Amino acid sequence: MRRITIASIQPPCLDEAAPTSHAHMVEKGFALLEEALTKDTAFCCLPEYFNVFGADSAAYCTLAQNHAALLDRTRSLAAQHASHIILPMLVPEGDTFYNRAYLIDPQGNITGHYDKIHPTLGEREQFNVSAGADVTVFDTEHGRVAIPICYDIYFPELFSALTRLKADLLFFPSLQRSDHETASEAMLRTRAMDAKAYLIRSSYGRPADLPWKAGQMFGQSAIVHPDGTLLANAGHYEGFALAHVQVPFVWQRQRCGGYPAEPVRDFLDEDRRPEAYDI
Known about the structure:
By secondary structure, the protein is an alpha/beta fold. The chain is 29% helix and 27% strand. The protein has 2 domains: 2-248, 4-Layer Sandwich (Nitrilase/N-carbamoyl-D-aminoacid amidohydrolase); 254-279, no CATH class. The protein has 8 helices and 14 strands. Strand 3 and strand 4 (96-104) form a beta hairpin.
């Protein structure tokens, strides 16, 4: 095992949805990303819909045409700082769109991308977002990486699949705001434990110079240990969460009944009974 640094970037969300709000969010997001990259980070994750969020939703499909320029800018930063970067965007493809997250390697190359398997009803009806078809895990020098996106977290079947694929790091770009903070944190801890992997959530926070109140975008970009421990949380305001973690981490505990400690992933896989609950 070796220790690496991971950052979850939390740009500001302004009250008014407008082109200027979007432009402000993007520039602040890149400024926070560049600051995090100076911390010798192995991975940095930006939040869901980074190329369109902050604008009026009616403009999303038009703004999505800028995805190539933001991708090039991010690839340049990854190469400059020799870091992996996860860049989530709304991406046009033919007559449809995908809620897509790119994994960029430390040379600035695109390792691959994941398309959100569970787009919401709003995404499907308002932006013609198509569902991804593949549960994707990427091999990197620091372990196996997956990128479930926002609504994906409500589907334990996906995290069961990621467990079987032995992901080490789950980057989780999100706009999730329909739940309260306690529910959001409970899901983060539970899904990290489900997959026996680090879970790194990235979302949007409140501008630092404006007050936060309940009902607004609550931030909570966070890094969760495979055993469910919350390692870092960016709170309500713009910024980033940073943690130094051992990857891969083999979570161990005793089986019930006082047996010797074993890797949790191994003994749960051994005790699975798919014939009893395959539906």
